[in-house]
C-alpha cells in the first residue's frame, strides 16, 4: 500500500515531502505532480527501482526516460550541450519542455536510449516537484503517468490512488495538474526535431524545427 501525502500545491508541507523523499531514497517509486501532468519517479541510481518503473509504465528500454532536474546546474553531469543548446535551455526552463540530449557517462547505459545514447531532460515549473528535488539532492528518473494501453496521463489523485496504490510506494497529492504533456524537442539533430507538440510553445524559443513525421 502506498503512503499518500496530501500537500498544498503552492506551499507544500515540508514534513510530508521529507517523508516522501525518504521513501524514494529507500528504493520506492512515487507518483508525483509536475507542471504538465503526474509522473512516475524513482532515484536515478537505483537499478531495481528503474526496472520496476518501466514495468509499471509498460515500456521497454527504447522508451526515452526523462531526468527531472531542479535547475540547469545539474545539466553538465548528465548531458553534453554546446553553448547554443545551453542558451536555448536557459530560455526554456523551468517550463513544460523536455529536451532530448546526448547523455554523458554519468548516466547509466541502462537508462539512456540503447542505440542513440540519449536521455530526456527537463526542469519542471512546479513548487512541489522543485521542493522534492531539493530534498533528494539529485535528478529523479521520470516518465509520464500513462497507464499501459492508454494514451492520456492520469490527472485525478483519487484515480491514481485507486489504480496505483499497490504498485507504487508513495503518492503525493497536490490536486489536479495541467493535464497537458510537455513539448519534446530533440536537440541532437540539426535542425532540432519536434518530437511532440505539448503545452510548451516552440515558437517562444525562436527555433526552426523539423517535424518528426515530416
Would you summarize the structure shown here?
The chain has six helices and twelve strands. It has helices at 14-25, 47-57, 75-78, 83-92, 127-136, 157-164; strands at 3-6, 30-32, 39-43, 66-68, 79-80, 97-103, 118-122, 140-144, 170-173, 183-186, 193-196, 210-211.
Overall description:
This protein is of the alpha/beta class. The protein has a single domain (3-200), classed as DHBP synthase (Alpha-Beta Complex). 26% of the residues lie in helices and 22% in strands. The chain has 6 helices and 12 strands. Strands 1, 2, 3, 4, 5, 6, 7, 8, 9, 10, 11 and 12 form a 12-stranded mixed beta sheet that branches. Helix 1 crosses helix 5. The termini are far apart. 41% of the residues are buried.
Essential attributes:
alpha/beta, DHBP synthase, 22% strand, globular, twelve-stranded mixed sheet, single chain, 26% helix
Amino acid at each position: 500500500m502506498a503512503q499518500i501525502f496530501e500537500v498544498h500545491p503552492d506551499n507544500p508541507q515540508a514534513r510530508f515531502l521529507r517523508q516522501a523523499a525518504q521513501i524514494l531514497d529507500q528504493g520506492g517509486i512515487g507518483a508525483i505532480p509536475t507542471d504538465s501532468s503526474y509522473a512516475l519517479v524513482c532515484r536515478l541510481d537505483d537499478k531495481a527501482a528503474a526496472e520496476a518503473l518501466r514495468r509499471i509504465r509498460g515500456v521497454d528500454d527504447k522508451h526515452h526516460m526523462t531526468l527531472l532536474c531542479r535547475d540547469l546546474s545539474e545539466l553538465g553531469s548528465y548531458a553534453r550541450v554546446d553553448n547554443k543548446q545551453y542558451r536555448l535551455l536557459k530560455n526554456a526552463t523551468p517550463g513544460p519542455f523536455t529536451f532530448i540530449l546526448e547523455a554523458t557517462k554519468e548516466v547509466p547505459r541502462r537508462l539512456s536510449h540503447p542505440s542513440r545514447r540519449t536521455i530526456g531532460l527537463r526542469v519542471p515549473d512546479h513548487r512541489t516537484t522543485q521542493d522534492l528535488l531539493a530534498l533528494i539532492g539529485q535528478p529523479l528518473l521520470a516518465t509520464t503517468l500513462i497507464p499501459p494501453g492508454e494514451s492520456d496521463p492520469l490527472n485525478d489523485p483519487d484515480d491514481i490512488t485507486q489504480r496505483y496504490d499497490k504498485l507504487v510506494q508513495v503518492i503525493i497529492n497536490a490536486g489536479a495538474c495541467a493535464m497537458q504533456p510537455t513539448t519534446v524537442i530533440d536537440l541532437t539533430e540539426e535542425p532540432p526535431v519536434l518530437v511532440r507538440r505539448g503545452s510548451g510553445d516552440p515558437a517562444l524559443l525562436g527555433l526552426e524545427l523539423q517535424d518528426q513525421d515530416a
